[in-house]
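Subject: Protein record for review, amino acid sequence with backbone structure tokens
Concerning: The relation between a protein's sequence and the shape of its backbone.
How to read it: Take the token row as a discrete description of the fold.
Enclosed: The protein record, placed directly beneath this head.
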Amino acid sequence: MIARRTFLATSATATAVGISGRTAAAADSGRPEQPPQDTDFVTLLTTAADERAAAVLDTYDGNITELRDMGKARAAARSLRTLTSVHVHAASAYHHDGALLGPMGELADTLADEQFDDGLWDQGAVHSPPDTAFSIVDLNIAYALLDKDGERSTEKVRATVERILRKAGPGLAHGGVHTANHRWLVCSALSRIHRRWPDASYPRRIDAWLAEGIDQLPGGEYSERSPTYSAVVTNPALLTIARFHDRRDLYAHVRDNLTASLYVTEPGGEVESVHSRRQDQAALRQLPEFWLQYRELAIRDGNGTFAAVAELLRERGTGQTFGETPLGDRLAEVLDRPELARELPAVKELPADFEHHDDSCRLVRVRRGERTASIFGGTDLPEVHAISSGLSTNPTFFKMRKGAAILDSLRLAPQFFSLGPFRSEGLERRGDAWRLHAEVRAAFHQPLPRRHRRKDGLYPLTDDGRFWSAMDFPHRPGEYRTLRTEILVRETDGGWELSFDVSEAAVPLALELCFRRGGELSGDGLEPVAGADDTYQLVSGDATYAVGDDRITFGPGNGKGGKQPPVVEPGERYTWMNGSLTPDGIRVLITGRSPLTYRMTLR
């Protein structure tokens, strides 16, 4: 059996539910010739899906336990979708394999059993419409594939999934959401249910959400500025709504987002997320999450640049990092949308030499072949004065790469009233440089004016910008201390020059460079920092971080001493909650004391 499956997976043609090349019979019958199919792409997905299905068969009982014990439906629904894809696909080693029927039935039955009376599941949030919508999207695809396949052996599974989908519709049509992308996710789930089982409340709800307008910034990012949610939720949802709810205008939003994503993608496939307002602002995200979106609009628009992205990902194959969605999970989407298996249009060269400024995110991206850099000045802290979920707060303001040598983060941390690291109040062009700047203040408070005094001494609990106290801060005169910072970032021949001007208050500060693990540091002026693993202070001269033949040389060091300790203060907003801002990697600190002018080179 193993040998047979291996043979089928490697030699089968791209024949499946909804995917086929032009056959001789079709030609003889006079039927219109089908567009040519990308058989290499379909074979790649088929092989990956068979491997993924084998893994699901070994682990799906854990999905069932998670669903029964914790109410989490996503893994179970995705596993059912994956098994469905290989079951209906004629080129799969599992095509119409009876061994899949039992697991598929168990998954469907458990999903039905654990569905609440209102059609929802929990997924960590009680009776959650948006979390339910993730699973309903997968089950919509699974049902469509099983229905088109029409095998008698899957009639019971089909009936169960139909019951789940019908039951979920009203809950999605009346329930609320948490975040911006949830609106479009719910709409996409409802649009597919309505197409098969019409209900007037479904399009009304879709139109109500869409009437709020798509939350797309001028630069092409959505309001959450998150590559994760663009790739995994918003773009797929808008494409589904365009298809099933006849909103062709939504293609333009996806097209703009994919164009923007070209400029935040690293040569190796990682996608910049320092500007994100979601959980991925300090995490690695991967280009393959966008794969089918680039492929769809490349084919739809004849876009050679998008085709180049899709072709590049196919060439990289199974050896690349896929992130949240394994390659084998993609087969179901292509079977559901056979046009995605068409041959790509002629590819155009991808942008590899540019300076791109997205003012709506205050992000600059520069690429010179294998060398890239990010300059970021767009956190939400200067406007909102808070650190919270849904805000951009990452204090990294510069990143760079030279091949495999990666500086993941450059931050500036002054010890000024425990207000935390430098976060720029803007990003603007200044001559041949990019300017980052901030002014932070803290007050010593004076006695209250007579008219605001109380005999009982019970004043309102108020915020002075650093902490809360029953001091009625808004009515007190303040004696302010100020720290001003300006950073000019210039591109030089083969590298960068950063000029720092920190003025007014006299405080210790530290520049923190964090390099990705896997390389080696060298430099006579490097000294280990006591009590801090993988952390060094550059006291004098330059140092080098190298990965093979790729290297970043940086410096110079700026001395040491009791007045400029090698300390990175995260700020009271973090330390009070026992939080930490320390990035993972190999850290080098360059310390000083303001007022300070200092010039750093990285080459």
